[in-house]
Structures are given as structure tokens and as C-alpha cells.
Amino acid sequence: MASIDSRLAALAEAIERKRMEQEYPVDELSRSLYNMGQRLSKMDSLEKAALLAEFNRDDPLDGTGSLDLSMEDIERFILDYKGG
Fold first, then answer.
1. Can you say whether the dihedral through the CA atoms of 6, 12, 18, 23 is positive or negative?
2. Is the dihedral of CA 12, 29, 75, 38 positive or negative?
3. Closest residue by Cα to residue 36 from 5, 84, 71, 82
4. How far is residue 70's CA from residue 72's CA, in Å, rounded to a whole number?
5. pLDDT tens digits, 39-60
6. 71-82 and 28-41 helices cross at what angle (nearest 10)?
7. In terms of Cα–Cα distance, which of 36, 50, 29, 32 is closest to 78?
8. How many Å is the Cα radius of gyration of the chain?
9. DSSP state letter for 18
10. Domain ranges across the chain
């Protein structure tokens, strides 16, 4: 039953999002940020580890340095991004 309820809730959310998009068109930046939040919220531990590795990668040829983040930092970033 919980599976059906979660599917119905997701469907209701999608319908509401489409209705809002029609009434209030969303600019590309807002859409991109929303999509990023959706992707972040669905990351599993392996994907989070890959993101962490990329953030901590030092590449002098690209002019980028390591951010020296921990997994807790990544988790906090995702929670902050989702607003929760």
C-alpha cells in the first residue's frame, strides 16, 4: 500500500509541477538548479563518493585545486541544497 501511496504522491507532485510551469513559465537557470537538486537527492553512496573524489581532485593544468572535503561535507551540502 505504501508503494501505491508514494506513486500517487509522486504523480500528484508531477501534475502540480506541470500546472505551475504552464501558469508561471520557469527560466532555464531555475530549471537547471531544480534538476540538480533532484539529481543530488537521488544519489547513492557510490555516486556521492564519486562526487567527493571529483571535488577533491587537484589538477594544476586545469587551474583547479582540491577542496579537501569529507563525506560529511558532501552530505551537508546535499541537505542544505534540498533545504532540509
1. negative
2. positive
3. 82
4. 5
5. 988 899 999 999 999 989 888 8
6. 130
7. 36
8. 17
9. H
10. 1-42, 43-84
Calculate ∠ Cα 34-35-37, nearest 5°.
65
CA–centroid distance for 59 within its chain:
25
The burial class, CB within 10 Å (0-12 / 13-18 / 19+), for 54 is exposed
Residue 57 Cα distances to 36, 45, 47, 53, 75, angstroms = 21, 18, 15, 6, 18
pTM for the structure as a whole: 0.56
Q: 66 with 73: CB under 8 angstroms?
A: no
Mean pLDDT by 10 residues, the chain (84 residues): 84 87 82 87 92 88 84 90 68
